[in-house]
Specification:
- By secondary structure, the chain is an alpha+beta fold.
- It folds into two domains: 1-38; 40-135, GMP Synthetase, Chain A, domain 3, CATH 3.30.300.
- It is 25% helix and 31% strand.
- It has helices at residues 40-62, 107-113, 119-124, and strands at residues 4-9, 12-16, 24-27, 70-80, 86-97, 130-135.
- The strands form two sheets. Strands 1-2-3 form a three-stranded antiparallel β-sheet, with no helix packed on it. Strands 4-5-6 form a three-stranded mixed β-sheet, covered by helices on one side.
Length: 143
C-alpha cells in the first residue's frame, strides 16, 4: 500500500491514492493553512471511524444480520504534551446502528469481536487511548 502526498502551496497537500481513486486535498486550519481540506488529524480520526464502522458491518454480515445502516461520529481531544507540542491525546468513536438492538441476532457476539477486525484502530490505539461506544437506533447504548 502506498500513498503520495505532494505540496500544492503553503500547507495544502494533494493526497494521491493512485489507482482510479480521486485525489484528496488536505490542508491545515488557520493560522497555518487556509482550512481548504481536512487536516491530518481529521484524516486520522476519519480513518479510525471508517475502519471501525466497516469492521462492525463485516461482523454484522458475518452473522447474516442487517445493521440498518451504520453511522459514526468521532472526536479527538488534542492537547499539548510535556514538550508543549500538540498531540492527539484521545479518540472517542460513537457508532450508531440503524436498527433496534433487539432486532439484531447475536449482537452480543458481534460487539465482542468487531473491534479486533479493524486494522487502523487496533494500530492507532497502541499509542492513543480510544473509547468506542455503540448505540442502536433508539439511542440505547449496547457497548
Amino acid at each position: 500500500m502506498s500513498v503520495t502526498v505532494t505540496q500544492v502551496k503553503d500547507y495544502q497537500f494533494l493526497v494521491d491514492f493512485g489507482r482510479a481513486i480521486p485525489s484528496l486535498q488536505a490542508d491545515e486550519p488557520a493560522p497555518l493553512g487556509a482550512g481548504e481540506g481536512p487536516s491530518p488529524s481529521e484524516l486520522l480520526i476519519a480513518s479510525v471511524a471508517n475502519c471501525l464502522t466497516a469492521s462492525l458491518l463485516f461482523a454484522v454480515r458475518k452473522f447474516k444480520q442487517d445493521a440498518g445502516g451504520i453511522r459514526a461520529t468521532v472526536t479527538a481531544r488534542i492537547d499539548r504534551n510535556e514538550e508543549r507540542r500538540l498531540r492527539v491525546q484521545e479518540i472517542a468513536v460513537a457508532i450508531h446502528l440503524g436498527r433496534n438492538a433487539a432486532d439484531i441476532e447475536s449482537l452480543d457476539r458481534i460487539l465482542a469481536q468487531f473491534e479486533a477486525f479493524c486494522t487502523v484502530s487496533q494500530s492507532v490505539q497502541q499509542g492513543i487511548p480510544m473509547v468506542v461506544t455503540v448505540e442502536d437506533v433508539a439511542g440505547v447504548r449496547v457497548k
